[in-house]
Structure formats: structure tokens, C-alpha cells
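Hi Q.,

Before the meeting this afternoon, I wanted you to have the iron/sulfur cluster prediction in hand. No need to reply - just skim if you have a minute. The sequence and ligand are here:
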Amino acid sequence: MDTGDFGTLVAGRECGDCTVCCTVPAIDDTQIQKKSATTCRHCTQAKGGGCGVYDTRLTICRTFHCAWRYLPDMDDRWRPDKSGVFAALDKPDPGALPPITLMLIGNPLRTLRETWFIDFVRKCALKNRPVFLSLPGPAGYRPLRALMTPQVLLQAARARGSEVKAFLEEALKFLRSQPFPEQVLKHSGNDVSA
Ligand code: SF4
Ligand code: SF4
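Predicted structure with the ligand bound:
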């Protein structure tokens, strides 16, 4: 989870009932650790709540926000628990927009055929924002991630939405053919994997 400074959060946009980042990604921090695809034991979402230690949650939990919290281009349907897309920003090269990883956590094929998903990827390509497509691994495994080749994506984005869709479907096919790498956490001492 990258907690870099990605600008201002969208005003008035809150996590609500979403707790995706308390389950999907691994947390590998000096203060807190969690395997990927396991729910943090402090998460009370199953009982209708959120973080059970909200007021005392650790720095990484206070500072991480998914891309939906930062980007006005992503409307309300992009909230990760509603859209099936856990989107996260990475540190950018100087002068460039932060790359975005679109992790498909619901029904991947159905999601990437949605008009709102294709339109967003097109906009990223036209703005030169690097886009990665990603699939989450099972518990304890790293996600798979593939960079959408910028020139090819741009060419597709300038043409038609159907070409972007075909490009995304090819990328998904490629990801599905790859093995998930095992995740070895670097830190220990406060493993909150449930
Ligand atoms: S994934 Fe995003 S919207 Fe969901 S809880 Fe985390 S920061 Fe909030
Ligand atoms: S401690 Fe962090 S990961 Fe765990 S439920 Fe709270 S915010 Fe989520």
C-alpha cells in the first residue's frame, strides 16, 4: 500500500461502509502487518461496522487512501466495494501523473466490459497516466499486474471504445495465464491477519 502524497482528497467523499483496503492488499509496515486477501482482525465489517480501533489506528491505516478517494474522474459508482475495482496510485516520475493500478476484485471480465470502466481507461491514456491492470492473488500471494503498453493503449483510446475493451480483454487473458507469486512479508511483530 503506497501512502504517498497524491494531492487532495475529493471533498465530501467518504469510505462509508467500504473496508476493501482492510482485506484485499497485504500490509507490510514496521507497525502492522497483514497477508493479502485476509481481513484484518480489527475490521468489524461482518457485524456492520468498520475499523474496530478507528481512533487509535496506526499511521499506515490513517494515511492510506485508494485512488477513488483522490480522483474526481472516478464517480460514486467507483467505490471499491460497489465497483469491484480496488484502484491505487503509485509514486509518479517527476512531472508525470501518478500511475494507477486497477485491481479487479469482483467479476473481472464483466467489470472491464463496463462503459464507465472503459471510458476511465481511455481518459487515463489520453492524459498520459500509466495504467496497470491487476488481479488479486489468494491469501498470502502477491497480486498480478500488467502495464497497459502506453502507445498501444493511446492508439486504441484515440480510435474507439471497442478497441480499448479488446486491449483490456487481451491483458486479462495474459494475467490469467500467469502464476501468482508468493508474498513474503519483510516486517513482523504485529500481524493482524484474521
Ligand atoms: S478501499 Fe478506498 S474507499 Fe474503501 S475503505 Fe479503503 S480507502 Fe476507503
Ligand atoms: S487496523 Fe487498519 S487494516 Fe485493520 S481494520 Fe483498522 S484501518 Fe483496517
